[in-house]
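Quick note —
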Amino acid sequence: MSKRIRLTIQYDGTKYLGWQRQPIGKTIAGTIEAVLEDITGENVTLIGSGRTDSGVHALRQIAAFSTSSNHSPDIFMRALNSSLPEDIKITAAAVVDSGFHPQYDAKSKTYFYIICNSEVLSPFFYRYCCHLKRPLDVVKMTDAAKCFIGKKDFKSFTASDTDIKTTEREIFSLNISLMEHVELLGTVIEGNYIKITITASGFLRHMVRNIAGTLVDAGYGKVDTLRVIEIINACDRTLAGKTMPAKGLFLENVFY
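Predicted structure written out below.
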């Protein structure tokens, strides 16, 4: 009898070509599917809550697969973690309703983007943030962030080659926080780190990174709040900020 297993997954996306399995190249889903097929002896399709791009990380990606295996969720979790590489780990596993769909059942998701805004970037964090040496005005970034709240057409902030039915999404919150240091295993690492946290009903391809790029423009005084509103309303990708590097982006949580 088939059952549905839900997985909670953490990964460092640095060495992977994104979430979705590709014909050529190493991906997060493809790596996990290969291990699941070894465990079950079945062809396994792993469905995630969303397709993170190449180089993007996740603290709590949700995925699910169906199997006829008698293994318990705990056995699946232990077997997966013993075979998966060190940069992909399963943090929870559970049996769920057979109709559970990680993407379509999600009510909202939270991503955050990290910028190191100091002269020197710690070698312990270079894989997980974008380094901008020139000081950013966090107050201007915060003012600009307010323009994005609500249900809007975010066509200006999606990848130019996106082919989807609608580019309307609802952003519930968008917060900018400044950290004057971070802690690593109880040790303080000096430096200014800016964290952009976005919770929305869903996200378009490159949406968070393009919004982050526009907020950086605001932080450098290149655009003000009126201009940000114009960019949103124009539905023109060429008017928004640049796509920020993938390495600073994390999928933080998925809510059901």
